[in-house]
Structure formats: C-alpha cells, structure tokens
Amino acid sequence: MVAQTITEKILASHAGLSSVRPGQFITARVDRVMAHDITGPLALAQLEAHGIDRPFDPERIVLVPDHLVPSPTAQAAQAIHRLRAFARRHGVTFFEVGRGGIAHILLLEEGLVAPGELVVGADSHTCTLGAVGAFATGLGSTDTAAAMATGEVWLRVPATIRVRLEGSLPRFVMAKDIMLALLAQIGLDGAAYRALEFVGSTLAELDLDERATLCNMAVEAGAKNGIVPPDPRTLAYVEARVARPFTPVVSDPGADYLDEVVIRCSHLEPLVAEPHSPARGRPVSELAGLRVDQVFLGSCTNGKLTDLRVAAALLRGRRIPPHVRMVVTPATQSIYREALAEGLLEVFVQAGAVVTGASCGACPGLHTGVLGPGEVCLATTNRNFRGRMGSPEARIYLANPAVAAATALTGVLTDPRAVVGGEGLFV
Amino acid sequence: MSAVEEVPVTLPTIRGRVHRVGDHVNTDLIIPGKYCLTTSRERLGPHCLEGWEPGFARRVRPGDVLVAGENFGGGSSREHAVLALQGAGFHAVIAAGFARIFFRNAINLGLPVLVCPDAAAQAADGDLVEIDVGQGRILLDGRVFRAEPYPPFLQEILAHGGLMPYVVARTRAGSSRPTS
To answer: Measured between alpha carbons, how far is A185 from A77 in angstroms, rounded to an integer?
Structure first.
C-alpha cells in the first residue's frame, strides 16, 4: 500500500479508489452538501434552470440562512424563503432563524460532519469542518448545485503542507494567533490548491473550538482544506453528536508532504493583522495605542463559546468607555443559550456591549455593525479586506477575542497582558 | 467513448482592451457583499471592482479583458464575483494565478480564465489583446504568449458550456465520473 496523508485517504475512499496522488482529478462522493442564504439561491436557480427537479439525497443536504438573519430587507427575506421552500418541498434540513447560526459551527455542533467524511459547502469557510478530521472544502454555487444534483464533486487531489505546532500557548495567545503567524509566514496564497494538515504537541491543549479556528483560516492562505487528524478529544466530541457509523482516518507513517512549516507556539504573542490583509500580522505590542471605533467579537472564526468565555473573563465587572462600541455576535443559537446560562451575555451587556442574535453579523458587511468611512474596527473575524465590513474607507484590524476585549476596555489597541486581572481565563 | 465526450472543444476568440489590477484582488474587492442579494449580471456589473477603484466598471467595453497579478479572486466563494465581471463586460481574465474557488466558479459560468504570468506581467492598461481560448494563445500588442493549457477534464466541462450542462449530459449518459 502507498503511504498517504489523511486528506488523500479520505479522497480516495470517496472516489472508490485504493489510493490517489496529488494532482489527480477524481470524482468523489459527498457525505454532506451545505449552502446558505447568499450562495444557496443561486445554487437552486442553477438546478431549476437545468431541469433538475430533485436533489440526489435530501438527507445529505443542509440549508442554513446565516448571513442575513433575521432578514434586514425584503430582498433578504425572499432569498431565505427560497431556501425554506426548497427544503420543505424536498425534505431537506433547514435551520430556521432562531434555531440555527453560522453554518460551519452549526454543522459541527449538530453532528452533521464526522471524522473521515467529505463535506462541500457553498462558502469558502466550509474548511472549518476539518476540525473533526473530515475533508471539507468551499465551492461556489454552481459546483454546489452539481453536488446537490449528483451527490458527487470533481476535485483535484491537493498536495499537503504539514503545519507542526510546537509547545504550549502562552496566556492570551490563541489558535487565531497561530493562524495569523502562519499567514504572515506563508502569505495569502502560500497554501493555494494545497491541504493544510495540523499536527504537533500544541494540539493536545486545543479544544474543538480552537481547532475549528485553525481549519477555518486555512482558506486565508488559499488552501483547499485544513484538517486536524482525529484524536480521543475529537472522538469524545463527535460521539456525543453523531449516531451514524463513521470511520476515523489518520495519515500513514511515511506519507509524502510537499512541505512542513513549524510554528513555535510557546514563543507566540497575541498578533494583530493590519489592513487590508490577514497576512499582515504583527505583535499587538507594536500596535498598542491605535484608536478604534468599534470592536466586533463574532464570526465563524471567533464567535464560539471558548471565544466568548475568554472575552467575558476580561470584561467581567468592567465598563467599555464612551468613545468605543462593542458588538458581540454568538456564532450559533446554542452558543447563545450556553453563554446566557453561564452569565457571559450579562457580562457583555453590563459592560456596555450590544449582543446580537446568532449570525455572520458584521463580518461580511451586511448588517449589525457595518462600518462607515474613516472608521477603525478591531474584529475577531478572518478577513480585513478593504470594504469587507462596509465602507472601503474603513480600516479593519484582526485579532483574537482576548485582544478584542482588552481593546474594548480602552478604545485603543491593547495587549490583554496589560489589563489587570483576567482570572479564570481558559487560555 | 460515449457520444457526449465527442463534442469538439469549440471555445471563443476574444478581442478587447486590457484593464489592469494588481496582486491578491479578492472577491470582496470584485463585488462587495452588500450587492450579492441579486444574481443578475446586469445589476452586479456596474459595481464590479468598485472596491478596487470607484467607477472602474464604467470604462469597460464588452469584450475587454481583465489582467491581474497573483492570487486573483481569493476570499469569499461568492460566484457573484464572476457574474459581476461578466456583467461589466469582461470576456476573459488573464492572471499570474487564481484562487481555486474563483477559478472553478469562472469555468462553471463560462468565463475563460487564463493562467499566464508573463502576459500578466507585461500587459498594460489599454493594450489590445486577442485570446484564442481553445489554444490558450494570447496575442498582446503583437507579442504571443501561451497560457497554461486546461487539463482535459476541464476542457470537457468547457466544451459542454459549463458544469451544469456537463452534469446533465453525463447523467443522461449514465455516468458522471470523469474519464481521467
């Protein structure tokens, strides 16, 4: 047998082959297909235009309105209704507003992805799902429509770059900083058309929320997928959520890697990526003091329970000063519920932040925190591209939730290590 | 070989003027998220690349070609980026490199995308360009450049006029698997 990486093994098994090699074109069976309220309507329009009146297997399709919920405009309401109507007609899973959240985090929570499975979704951050040892990749609407019609997707097998994470993360340094460090090192296309496989001693201390952040930002380096090989922690997470049989897969000893990148996590500082690229990360200490108008805590990158806990631990009992505003958007309704039960939402509200319903929120510049010209935002999101959150004249800085909370407390970019206290943190 | 595989590759010849952008032009710059509630090329077109430069689309004439640097189309998977480029009047994009989702989206919607670092480096705003998409031949201001050829599997999709017609044809033929 040829020694293969986890990505190659999952692709081979879904293509009905004993092995695959990088560069090979395959047609792979999909275990799940996802689309949301921005990309879904176009996918459904493609099915309709080509006379495909039923999906290959309704149970494998999931439609999640997450960008525009609750709908801010009549047009958005119409887009969401199109998904809802399709779901009703075909018996496809649809997460109604108030019972869903950001698709990628929702699919993990709901057990709609398991180790060894292959998932495609009409959103670039579908790669988040690699956190449980699945192959997951983002596609456009037409590719997604084809997958909905046939249950298959064509893929070119990616070569794998192994990212070795070494050492313990210092306090206030999170998975977000690992990814900003990696991006600063390899650039926005440093993993273009490649798989990123995360290995190393640091993984043992990263929970599934943090692993999701690693895989989530793989696409920021152009990667096809990010993946964390399953370990006992993965299996404990998945077994609580998945009833169907699944087959965890890990890389073979001696598998071929295109390259290896080592991140010395014990030496990392909290990083901040300057406008207008996530690859422009610098230590927060070098940018401390920069004035911000808005802090946004949320998104598929950092709107998870672990993220909210870290921020709340810094904000507890403190007040956000008048010249800065903070928007907190839990990634999913279940995170919202848990944050409510733990008292985290009360901490945010008492501090003077606004807490919104679960959605993608301000990240793609659609509602609940859109930026105006000249405004500066510190966001826990994944992209600080020009115009991403609204005005092209706004400036977005990316950082982890601890930096976000510390910055909200001062109104200027602040190293969380400079904020007194912060007991009970998980980092 | 089944009948559907024998359709010859007939891809267009494109003639137009060059419009240049730089490296890492992402899909948020190509079409901001706030416009993505429509899938109409006509409505998306006027906003094409306004994040790169306000009013960009006004200068484009049907048949023009966008020339970009590295990693064109990175970021969001929004297929609206391809629709916006088509709506603005672009008939092809030449780049030093493309982000993978954008590349797929362009093929799927019938927008020829050509990888050619040399042409991307030398094309200037306003240059006259002629592209034989089937041959991957780029004629730029009297000089000839060769784009990376499409893999056979992609040529097959293009020959069908995009992914959906390909899928429909393969499904009718009883197989949706690639032959390679």
So the answer is: 42
